[in-house]
Every structure is written in C-alpha cells, then in structure tokens.
Prior knowledge:
Layout: E1 8-11, E2 14-22, E3 29-34, E4 37-41, H1 50-62, E5 70-74, E6 80-86, H2 89-106
Parallel strand pairs: 2-4
Antiparallel strand pairs: 1-2, 2-6, 3-4, 5-6
Amino acid sequence: MSGPPEWLTRRPDGVTVEVKAVPRARRTQVVGVQDGRLRVQIAAPPHEGQSNAALCAFLAGLAGLRPAAARIRRGSGGARKLVEIDGDPAAIEARIVAAAGEVAQEA
C-alpha cells in the first residue's frame, strides 16, 4: 500500500478525516470520494447538530470505536468538515479505508 488516502491524515493519537457531508439521505453510508474528501450521506437532518452527531457516531463505528472518540474539528456548519477520531491511527485508517474501498469496488 502506498500510504493513506488524501482525505485521511494520521496524528499521533488518531486520524483526521476530510469529509463532504450530505444530510437528509435515506441512510447513513460512505458513498465514495469527492474533491479529495470522503463523501458520507447522513440520514439525520442538519438541525441542532443532529447530522454532525450522526456523522461522528458513524465514523467512530466504522473505526470500531465508541461515538465519543470522534468529534468535528472544523466545519460544523457546512458540508465540508474535518473530523478527528481518537485511537490507534493504523487500526482506524485500515477500517475506514476498507469501508471506502468497498464502495469503490461496488461502483
């Protein structure tokens, strides 16, 4: 493997994921990569932080972690977000990249 994808950055205590969030979808799922960001459809509406909480919980779940391990670092009010996920960087990267790879194979 040639290293992490452009939308994922390793930190000493976790990873940072660049996300293009699409709220009000039928279900929460990774749908691919768009403009160098992981594109995630979110079932929750963008009202009172519901979609941000759902996004964090979803990404933490993909990484095999509890929802509190993920948080919005930047972009809480827009579609382009930086999400930090705390934990073992290698394990988190492997799980999230695998989930994104499954989407790429289906397309």
